[in-house]
From TrEMBL:
Protein name as catalogued: Uncharacterized protein
Gene3D superfamilies registered for this protein in UniProt: Endonuclease/exonuclease/phosphatase, Tetratricopeptide repeat domain
InterPro entries according to UniProt: Endo/exonu/phosph_ase_sf, TPR-like_helical_dom_sf
Length: 1149
């Protein structure tokens, strides 16, 4: 056959085939060793597609053996023609960059042939070099290797050396030992690697991806096996326990969260089995041990202590305290007691370990012996017994070296501990160059962490924290070295160099703690204390203050004495920085006054791109993406092609067939509408931005129903595969959604909408498919512009338009960001604003406002109530329309409530009359407005009594979007207070936190101007704590982007800071009851307000700022109440009321 490329006889296989089912534009390049069998290549590709729900007919793979013309290669060999390495390098780089995805095939998993070939390592290295352009690296293995992995997990993981197989695999990765068919190739490749990077960096990258594949595959296979197998609950629990242990030991990214989830699932299974020697008894202590260790890495002090001590009780009851597993538990308990300063318990645990160490148990493995010595050594180090600690560490080092385990994470921890001893020992510090040995130990530990792909774990974060502390220590020693001016200048330069190194290491440690969800640990608190000192040394006092503040919060939450060091440091820094910012970080409250907070915490954002957010300072990637999308939608030009070019006819037919199979009415009309109306319409101007589509809500409602679906139990929500949902795909190793193309998207979208069976949380149908959540036409939800035919076919019409919308948006993203970088941005925004939203919200309240007396919250999702109760229940009354237990049972992704938190010290008795008072205000407000406008849960009213006996009405309210309910509700609240005053014969105080949805402009009848609302409040006797000019205190600064369904509401990049900058939130009180001592807003989560900043941000999780007021009760009111109390005590029960009634009776009666 003639080659179409050069016209000569002999062609490549790819040039001999045709048709979409056989050939197409490559979406991934396969990188593999030529020794692999064809069956393994086929199996590896099948596993890659199956794991991602990809259509195997549409995943076009570039293979060199099939895509390169091998006839020409053979001819060149016969002629002894050698292609220069630089030519190969350039061709290969262009190919990788053009395709954008490299798939590495590795087998066997315990020692891949792939990593022994230098050309394979070069392909990996080239992919690394293109990382900034987002060339992604994936790893796959044949099915036989997956089964081998599953056998390993089930049989070996929890044994003392169970994870060693993986550590050995990762340690065997060494590019310098790789082979090549031509020696010159290896020499050229190694020279390139040394020039651009290093062999160690290549080794670390390969190890990281290989480890990610191992853990993800184990997790996926075990869950799949548990669903499909007929094994009993104990076997399934054991497998989940093994997977949880593996994920915990690696601890990178979300692995700790996944470990906790797997272990909790195992706990449920064991609870179902019941206790007994033949049942769950042997598994319980092992599970509780793993749970406790996982909780410790997550910074969950109470849960960790309970689980670890429960495990010890189980071992004791079973008479197994002399077994190796129980001894490991005692060692981990000692570490826990040391970190959290349980001195008595620590002493007992260490004594037990010292006894074991002294007896030299012959049955103990070298690793366990070393672990015991390291634990005792760390305790001695904490007690400043450095010489004894170093002896124990040296013994442990010999044990691990002899057992060939020093190149493991445990060896890295040991080297770190040895380095800390050398640094902290005042005797060693007197030597001239002790830091060289310290640095050598720390960086050897870092190399081990990188080779084992555990640098990004909590253990790796501790190591980077220690390195930061080392450089800080060296910077402090430098200052005293200078005597002359020149020496002092040199010393200052050197000191700055050390501080910069310390800052870089510290910031890396901070990022690792945050990404591994271990930022609440004692190690993280110590790091922030170290970072504070570093920033202070660099004279970045604002950053120093924030670091000290974060350290103080974590220490305080754990009850650790480190909080006093942090507080002292905060006071020291306050004197050095601009007090203008810091003065806004605390509200002064009189001794007998009240600190009041109101915050609309904002329901979840189901679209990560819906609103302009404040992205990372100095990083323009997010803003550039949004500007490119905005430009494309506004001026698409000749790229505005007909819909059928991005969503072909055959795909429409497939969708209609699916809808017909689902027995949806109106499919014939939808098929006709496609042909007559949509098919040839321009996808931007005629569909995405079409005002008719927007007014009819043809895809915005269906988007709302299916963007986020809450599932039963603790399972995370399910998201529709789309650019504009929090869908993140199946990949975990590189945090990408893997929406490779519209072909791949369609496979996932179709399977999700029509084949996925979801078990929903709450009422209604227990099990459903997502398409069933799309509702039929309703005048309340729909539009009068919808025709009668469209109403009859409303569900299938919405599904078609939703598919077109999702496809159109993805097509634009492919056009503006062909390298797929948008997925990385989306993942980060999703993580910070959605996945961590609840955690950040609770943390801001707990760390900054736990000293408040009254906290009014609006738009609180149901599943937040349990977390609020656990975080504040000890010190606050939680007042909500439903109990946390009921909310947990009836959890919904859209239901939100207004909630109150009242400090028990200020309001000792339980608030009363909540349901009746709330109903009373709702009825009065609806009567005033002439219609039923209030949504259930938007308003909460209760009555509480201050410790002095003063009665209070407390209210929290979120108005409707236009603010129309704000006036009737505030009037009804004021009338309620007056009625209560008449009943109590004394003044009743009001504290009313309200999102009134007021705006700072006039002329729009559909919105409530803040001045109009202020005048209304003055009329009824209410006052805002913001003073006479509330319009000057904006609490929102938000704007919709173009990357969301409601095009008419889109705001340009240029106007994103001015579109909705309004004073929507208020704290209202009654005239003459309080003095407003202080008032502030917070849109940073750090008790400060930054003007001209869009919220939410990556740090602040709501689109409303927090409003805080310090209130002082007027003194005469306190004195009148005290007089009343004295009179009641003197006259007896009921007599004061009778006296007041008699005095108020008309004269002459």
């Amino acid at each position: 056959r003639i080659c179409p490329r050069d016209g000569k006889v002999g062609t490549a296989y790819v040039d001999c085939i045709s048709g979409n089912d056989h050939v197409g534009k490559a979406v991934v390049m396969l990188s593999y060793a030529w020794k692999y069998r064809l069956v393994d290549i086929q199996s590896g590709l099948e596993q890659f597609c199956e794991a991602r729900d990809l259509d195997i007919k549409r995943v076009y793979v570039w293979l060199c053996c099939l895509c390169v013309n091998q006839h020409r290669v053979a001819e060149a060999i016969l002629k002894n023609e050698e292609v220069p390495f630089d030519t190969f390098k350039e061709v290969f780089r262009n190919r990788v960059e053009g395709i954008g995805r490299v798939l590495a095939l590795m087998a066997p998993w315990e020692k891949p042939e792939y990593i022994t070939r230098v050309w394979c390592d070069f392909e990996l290295f080239s992919t690394m070099q293109l990382a900034e352009q987002e060339c992604r690296l994936y790893v796959t293995m044949p099915l036989t290797q997956q089964k081998s992995l599953l056998d390993w997990v089930g049989a070996h993981m929890l044994k003392s050396d169970g994870v060693d197989a993986m550590w050995k695999t990762l340690a065997s990765v060494d590019v310098s030992q790789a082979e090549a068919s031509f020696p010159g190739d290896k020499q050229a490749i190694m020279s390139l690697i040394n020039e651009k990077s290093s062999p160690h960096a290549v080794n670390a990258t390969v190890s990281r991806h290989l480890q990610g594949w191992i853990t993800d595959t184990c997790d996926t296979l075990v869950r799949q096996w548990a669903r499909e197998s007929k094994q009993d609950d104990i076997h399934q629990a054991w497998l989940l326990l093994n997977v949880g242990s593996l994920l915990r030991k690696i601890g990178r990214g979300d692995m700790l969260i996944r470990a906790e989830r797997a272990l909790k699932e195992a706990e449920v299974l064991l609870t179902r089995v019941g206790d007994g020697p033949d049942k769950a008894d042997p598994v319980w202590p092992v599970l509780l041990h793993e749970l406790g260790y996982t909780y410790m890495d997550l910074g969950k002090k109470k849960e960790a202590k309970d689980a670890l001590e429960a495990a010890k009780e189980k071992y004791t009851a079973q008479g197994k305290m002399n077994e190796q597993a129980a001894i490991r538990l005692v060692s981990d308990l000692a570490n826990f007691y040391r970190k959290f300063e349980y001195k008595k318990e620590l002493r007992e645990a260490v004594e037990q370990l010292e006894t074991i160490d002294g007896e030299s148990h012959r049955g103990l493995s070298p690793k366990l012996k070393a672990k015991i010595k390291i634990t005792i050594g760390d305790t001695k180090r904490s007690d400043k017994a450095y010489e004894r600690a170093m002896e124990l560490f040296s013994d442990a080092y010999k044990l691990l070296t002899d057992d060939q385990n020093i190149e493991r994470p445990m060896g890295a921890d040991l080297l770190m501990s040895m380095g800390i001893v050398l640094q902290d020992d005042p005797v060693l510090n007197k030597k001239k160059y002790p830091d060289r040995e310290v640095e050598k130990l720390f960086f050897k530990a870092k190399e081990i962490r990188e080779r084992s792909a555990t640098l990004e774990s909590p253990g790796g974060a501790k190591l980077m924290s220690a390195i930061a502390n080392m450089f800080l220590d060296r910077s402090e020693k430098v200052v005293a070295d200078g005597s002359t001016d020149e020496e002092k200048r040199e010393a200052e330069v050197k000191r700055k160099e050390f501080l910069d190194k310390a800052k870089n290491a510290g910031k890396q440690a901070k990022n690792i703690f945050e990404h591994s969800h271990s930022e609440e640990t004692m190690a993280a608190a110590f790091l922030m204390l170290t970072l504070g000192k570093i920033y202070e040394g660099l004279k970045d006092y604002q950053d120093a203050y924030c670091a000290y503040q974060q350290s103080r919060r974590t220490y305080t939450y754990a009850g650790h004495k480190g909080r006093f060091k942090a507080l002292k440091a905060m006071d020291r820094v306050k004197e050095k920085i601009d007090m203008e910012v810091i003065s806004n970080q605390s509200v002064a409250v009189p001794k007998d006054g009240l600190l009041v907070v109101t915050w609309n915490i904002g329901a979840r954002f189901f679209n990560p791109f819906e609103f302009w957010i404040t992205y990372k300072e100095g990083d323009e990637a997010y803003y550039e993406l949004m500007r490119k999308y905005e430009k494309f939608v506004k001026t698409p030009g000749d790229k505005d092609v007909p819909l059928h070019q991005i969503f072909p006819d055959f795909r429409v037919r497939e969708l209609i067939d699916l809808m017909r199979s689902a027995r949806l009415e109106g499919c014939d009309y939808v098929e006709k509408a496609w042909k007559d109306k949509y098919r040839d319409t321009k996808f931007v101007g005629g569909f995405l931005t079409c005002e008719e589509n927007a007014s009819k809500k043809l895809f915005s409602l269906a988007d709302l129903y299916t963007s986020s679906i809450s599932l039963k139990g603790s399972a995370p929500p399910q998201y529709r595969p789309s650019v504009t949902t929090h869908y993140a795909g199946n990949l975990r190793t590189d945090n990408s959604a893997d929406l490779l193309s519209t072909d791949h998207w369609w496979m996932r979208w179709r399977n999700f909408m029509f084949h996925e069976v979801l078990e929903l949380h709450g009422g209604g149908k227990a099990k459903t498919r997502p398409y069933e959540l799309v509702m039929g036409y309703s005048p309340l939800r729909g539009s009068p512009n919808v025709t009668e035919d469209e109403r009859k076919a409303w569900i299938p019409l919405q599904l078609l338009c939703l598919a077109l919308y999702d496809c159109a948006v993805l097509h634009i993203m492919e056009e503006i960001e062909p390298d797929g970088n948008w997925q990385k941005i989306k993942f980060e925004v999703t993580k910070e604003t959605a996945k961590l939203k609840q955690t950040k919200t609770i943390r801001i309240l707990r760390d900054n406002y736990s000293a408040a007396d009254v906290i009014c919250l609006q738009k609180v999702p149901m599943d937040y109530l349990k977390m609020l109760e656990s975080s504040f229940g000890m010190d606050f009354h939680l007042v909500s329309p439903v109990s946390p237990e009921q909310a947990e049972q009836e959890r919904s992704s859209t239901e939100t409530y207004s909630v109150l938190l009242l400090r028990k010290q200020r309001f000792p008795s339980q608030p009363r009359g909540t349901e009746a008072l709330t109903r009373r205000v709702i009825d009065a407000a609806n009567k005033k407005s002439g219609k039923k406008q209030l949504k259930p849960g938007a308003l909460l009213v209760t009555k509480a009594f201050h410790a002095s006996g003063l009665p209070f009405i407390m209210a929290s309210f979120r108005s409707d979007g236009s603010g129309k309910t704000s006036k009737p509700v505030s009037s009804a609240i004021d009338e309620l207070v007056k009625d209560e005053e008449n009943s109590n014969h004394c003044r009743v105080r009001l504290i009313f936190g309200i999102d009134a949805n007021t705006v700072d402009h006039t002329g729009d009848e559909d919105e409530l101007d803040v001045r109009s609302f202020r005048e209304h409040c003055f009329k009824v006797g209410l006052r805002s704590c913001a003073g006479h000019r509330p319009e000057k205190h904006s609490t929102t600064c938000k704007a919709r982007t173009y990357l969301q369904p409601q095009y008419k509401k889109s705001v340009t990049y240029a106007r994103k800071l001015v579109d909705d900058c309004n004073p929507r939130d208020h704290i209202l009180i009654r005239k003459g009851t309080f003095r407003v001592e202080a008032f502030q807003r917070d849109n940073s989560g750090m008790e400060s307000y930054k003007e001209a900043q869009n919220i939410p941000s990556l740090e602040f999780p709501s689109d409303h700022a927090i409003v805080v007021a310090g209130l002082g009760l007027l003194q005469d009111d306190w004195e009148m109440q005290e007089l009343r109390n004295n009179l009641e005590a003197a006259l007896g029960d009921g007599r004061l009321e009778a006296l007041v009634s008699a005095l108020n009776r008309p004269r002459g009666g």
